[in-house]
């Protein structure tokens, strides 16, 4: 056992960093899919019974499993391994880029627990958010992920002007995409209603 630890200890940083990256991948995958389920859950309200109750029950089950089995563990591994990585090089705590990164991680943690709160409200039937609002919410971790990765890669040499421009461009692009998708959905629904109306008229 002593020999084992003597061989592993010099590479502790790499082990911690590897599992930190794995945790980040799992955590973000869970967050992205969780809010997508919120979209479907909210839109299930528009369905007639019994489809509405069946869909809401299924989405509630999927959300709970995703949050508790994937998203929460991913968050815990990410945070724990980040602390372990920093413990191997404590001098990095003086770096401004790490302070910025940690501030963004705090925002991500707030987002994570906010999603947990929304999940519980959806289950209780007290959430008033629409599918469109959830689509916008689903873009928040994208912005955090891009900025966090940029800070982790570039560190002190991060090109702030280019990074700021990239984030602004992403915000504009995502806002436009959400609006265009909403417009397309409205047109599709109008066409569907017209088709159903024509069918009803031709078959009295």
Explain briefly what this protein structure is.
By secondary structure, this protein is mainly alpha-helical. 84% of the residues lie in helices and 0% in strands. It starts with a helix and ends with a helix.
Would you give an account of this structure?
By secondary structure, the protein is an all-alpha fold. The protein contains seven helices and no strands. It has helices at 2-8, 12-43, 51-88, 96-124, 131-137, 140-154, 160-202. Helix 6 runs antiparallel to helix 7 (160-202). It is elongated, with a radius of gyration of 22 Å. The protein starts with a helix and ends with a helix. The mean pLDDT is 88.
Q: What order do the helices and strands follow?
A: HHHHHHH
Note the total helix count: 7
Oligomer: single chain
Low-confidence stretches: none
Question: In which range does the helix fraction lie?
Answer: over 70%
- Structural class designation: mainly alpha
Bin the strand percentage.
under 5%
End-to-end gap:
83 Å
Sum up the overall morphology in one term.
elongated
Largest sheet: none
Radius of gyration: 22 Å
Secondary structure tally: strands: 0
What is the fold's blueprint, element by element?
Layout: H1 2-8, H2 12-43, H3 51-88, H4 96-124, H5 131-137, H6 140-154, H7 160-202
Helix pairs in contact: 2-3, 2-4, 2-5, 3-4, 4-6, 6-7
